[in-house]
Every structure is written in structure tokens, then in C-alpha cells.
């Protein structure tokens, strides 16, 4: 199977994701966001969480803040 075949087969899903503002590469950070939600639930402070997650996932703190904001944003109903 070629890359074209995969894109062709999944084009509707990919288009819906793009319309909803979802970046395909963000799937790498699903575990990071799950850890964030778990730590928030435990009562940890956001500044502490960001520092821990940045080190744990080897990304800068700005990236963690950006992901938290992006993943926490609702999709518009017409985009989904």
C-alpha cells in the first residue's frame, strides 16, 4: 500500500479533521494531554504540570501550553 492509497482511502476523515482545525501530528501528544488531565484532577498547579510534562515528553514548555489550549478547544458543530 502506498501513501497515496492511505490518503485516498481516508480522505473524508482527513478532510473532517482539517475542517475541525485538528493537526494530524497532534496524535503524538495524546498521552501528554491525558497526563495533563490526570494531574489537573489531582489538583496540581498548571505551571508545575507544564514543567513536568515538558521534561517528560522532551518538548518546550511553550509547546505544552499550546497543546493544552488546542486540545481543550471545542470543535465547531458544522466542522464535525
> Percent range for helical residues?
55-70%
Report how far apart the termini are. Answer: 28 Å
Could you report the average pLDDT, rounded to the nearest whole number?
92
Spell out the helices and strands N to C.
Answer: HHHHH
Largest sheet: none
Percent of residues in beta strands? under 5%
Q: Count of helices?
A: 5
Principal-axis shape: elongated
The tally of strands reads 0
Low-confidence stretches are none
**Which structural class should the secondary elements be placed in?**
mainly alpha
Write down the Rg: 15 Å
Describe what this molecule looks like in 3D.
By secondary structure, the chain is mainly α. It is 65% helix and 0% strand. The protein has helices spanning 3-9, 11-19, 30-42, 46-57, 61-71. The model has no long low-confidence stretch (mean pLDDT 92).
Summarize the helices and strands and which ones pair or pack.
Layout: H1 3-9, H2 11-19, H3 30-42, H4 46-57, H5 61-71
Helix pairs in contact: 3-4, 4-5
What attributes does this structure have?
mainly alpha; elongated; 80 residues
Task: Briefly summarize what is shown.
By secondary structure, the protein is mainly alpha-helical.
Amino acid at each position: 500500500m502506498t501513501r497515496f492509497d492511505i490518503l485516498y482511502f481516508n480522505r473524508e476523515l482527513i478532510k473532517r479533521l482539517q475542517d475541525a482545525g485538528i493537526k494530524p501530528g497532534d496524535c503524538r501528544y495524546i498521552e501528554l494531554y491525558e497526563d495533563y488531565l490526570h494531574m489537573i484532577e489531582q489538583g496540581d498547579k498548571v505551571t508545575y504540570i507544564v514543567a513536568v510534562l515538558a521534561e517528560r515528553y522532551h518538548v518546550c514548555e511553550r509547546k505544552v501550553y499550546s497543546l493544552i489550549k488546542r486540545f481543550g478547544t471545542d470543535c465547531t458543530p458544522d466542522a464535525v
